[in-house]
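W.,

You were right to be curious about this one. When I first looked at the sequence I had no strong expectations either way, so I just let the prediction run and decided to look at it fresh. Below is the sequence, 276 residues in total, followed by the output.
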Amino acid sequence: MNRNNRDRGYKRLKKKVHLLLDPTDGGTFWDQVINSLIVCLILLNLAAVCLETVESLYQGYRSWFRNFELFSITIFSIEYLLRLWSCTCIRKYRHPLKGRLRYILSAGSLVDLAAILPFYLPLSGLDLRSLRVLRMIRFMRFFKLGRFLNASRVIRRVFASKKEELLISVLLVFTLIILAASAMYFVEHDTQPDKFSSIPETMWWSVATLTTVGYGDVYPITSIGKTLTACISILGIGMFALPAGILASGFSEEFKRKEARVAAACCPHCGMALYE
């Protein structure tokens, strides 16, 4: 009996830890407090990474930056271990070994791991002092915000629902870039062999023109080339606006579905929630 009580208490504790760390499953006061503190810590870390690049500031507050990094790593490491320990509360991760391995390979867990990895890599004994890219990896902590913001889940659903349309629009854009580069190469190569030396080289002009950036380092000088550039620029405005229209439609549909779900959960007479 005592063993059963301990097992039930252990499972309740694990479930409670999971609810406190997961903003989608929680909803209590302490759940909101803990997640708000983690969000603040993530934002402070992003600010610290940026400020460390100011050499005078970093030299003057080197010890402060170091202590803050140690504090942050301690919190993020504890958070990661607690998530790994309590993930078996989720049905698809319920197996104590295979479930945790599956959780480690999930997108959210990989982001959490990448957020703490730059700190532990130098401790492995490898000479990584020259890899300043480790500071850049610390920006992965930004993506930890995704699990705490409702807006990020809306964005994921929109991209998931419109992935085929977005893929087609991206393919169309790449096709247009190649066709524009090919046409301009054959028109301008004889006149400017140094700037339009090949189709891959001409793709730089194609991207700059289609995106209407127009850096001006590569431009046509023939009449046919100028006319072709004008047509391609106008076509590029509409083509690059296509993904924006698809995403706008996706967001509109998602908000309508959300309103429908809220309406279905409310009383049609008084408007009060049917389930608390």
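Here's what jumped out at me. The chain has a mean pLDDT of 77. And, maybe more interesting for your project: Residues 163-264 form a domain with the Helix Hairpins fold (CATH 1.10.287.70).

Coffee later to discuss?

I.
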